[in-house]
Amino acid sequence: MKSDVEIAQEAELEPMEDIAAKIDLDKDDIELFGNHKAKVSLDTLRRLKNRDSGNLILVTTMNPTRKGEGKTTTTIGLAQALWRRGKKATLGIREPSIGPTMGIKGGAAGGGYSQVLPMEDINLHFTGDLHAIGIAHNLLSAVINNHMHRGNEMNIDSRKIVWPRVVDMNDRALRNTVVGLGGSSHGMPNENSFGITASSEVMAILCLAEDITDLKDRLSDIIVAYTHDNEPVRASDFDSVGAMAAILKHAIKPNLVQTIEGTPAFIHGGPFANIAHGTSSLISTKLGMSLSDYFVTEAGFGSDLGAEKFFDIVCREGGLEPDVVVMVASVRALKRQGGVSRKNFDQENIGAIKKGLSNLSKHLENIQMFGLPVVVAINRFPSDTQKEINYLKELCENIEVPHSVIEVYQKGGDGGLDLADEVIELCEEESRFSPLYPLNKSPKEKIHDIATKIYGAKDVVYTHEAEKDLRRIKRIGLGDLPICMVKTQYSLSDDRSLRGRPKGFEVKIREVRLSAGAGFIIPMAGDITTMPGLPSTPAAEEIDIDEDGKISGLF
Known about the structure:
Elements: H1 4-10, H2 16-21, E1 30-32, E2 38-40, H3 42-47, E3 55-61, H4 71-84, E4 89-93, H5 98-101, E5 110-111, E6 114-117, H6 119-123, H7 129-149, E7 156-161, E8 165-167, E9 177-179, E10 190-192, E11 194-196, H8 201-208, H9 212-220, E12 223-227, E13 232-234, H10 241-247, E14 255-259, E15 264-267, H11 282-291, E16 294-302, H12 303-318, E17 324-329, H13 331-337, H14 350-369, E18 374-379, H15 386-398, E19 403-406, H16 408-411, H17 417-426, H18 443-455, E20 459-462, H19 464-475, E21 506-515, E22 520-525, E23 544-545, E24 551-552
Parallel strand pairs: 3-16, 3-17, 4-15, 4-16, 8-11, 17-18, 18-19, 20-21
Antiparallel strand pairs: 1-2, 2-14, 5-6, 6-14, 7-12, 9-10, 12-13, 14-15, 21-22, 23-24
């Protein structure tokens, strides 16, 4: 089979005006970025604000392998399949970060015959949204340091500046830095750090804001430091919020593109689910729901991360009620959770699949905790044997969960028609959706609910530093915010080496950060970091461009 980039380059794209017209948008509703990308104007968002919404389908997965289980590909393929069934469907996914694109996972535009196009542009800068988010974030960093250099009238404790810098690249050397060296004319020395742009609170704010006014209000609430008297210092104290919002003028507008089969697709915002809330923007989700009968979106990584945060953070903020959840499962993910090493994924192993079922079962239980119907999408990879596929289907039948084998990578929408039928049928069932916890619980109680109910932990323990962080959050009156856990995606626990369905473990919280503008509390568990590193063989080593501008090696 041809590579993803070869398939993408051979596809014939439709004019953006035609794609927009499929969902009742005219040329005045879109702002073209080249021939095959567009922004949807904020005037259109306001016009459609009170329109009835279509069905909301969330795609999630079990704990994935390092290269993912095809969740984005499934999201795209399902939307194409729904369109083939005569349903007015759109999809919403996150914007790729260049860090992972150059790292181990590659791009995030789907794969095979279930891609969003133009794939090369989407994976490399796209419409510049992540660049704008990074610049807006780092403007605030520069303003803070300039204030310190000019006399520090706010009495900021340089040891308590909690606003890092960001860059859209995996660069572990920037995790811990010192800035301001070189003498008094170069600023005040202080410890600092870098996160990847996807971890920026500005990214989270953009993805949760309803409009420019809400964006500015949220940016104003960002806590960037504390004074020597331990009082919070906010972005609004520096009079730079207007400039930050101006930088984000175009970034707040949703991006409209198309799939390889011409299905309209929204791509907007790119928070990771292991270090942020892991879903595309509320603006694009509400827009897609108002323009279609079925809107398919994804939440990063497994139900323990992206899906839980979608339900407990995003749905609360947006007043959303999902209708159906699609749980992506693969033979190789079950093998990995059953103890098989990556180098042996291609070897048939029924015993490991049976052992790994405990992981999938827990993720299905997690979805049912939220009162939502769920269907398993068995994503077939070329190395899967028919015996393994049949056995996985049998396991799903034994636990009485709807399931469908999909081949959307190989066949596009045709490879997901059975899944589309299952989703259409489940959308007729009554959703009994409710969040996991009430917001008026204490932060510790909410963290305990997530750790014990979603992860299966026996308890949560806190370092001395984390206890101090929680006391500070209580003192400044922000304990009612929802929780955005930071932990590994490879295990239900906070220890990536624990496979299957671990029992008897404790979740250790080493520190607790606060995103007051985005509106959530961030407990940091395990050894996860907000600045990933590159692998021993980065994907960047395979990417090239020839003299005619044709890119190769991108996936």
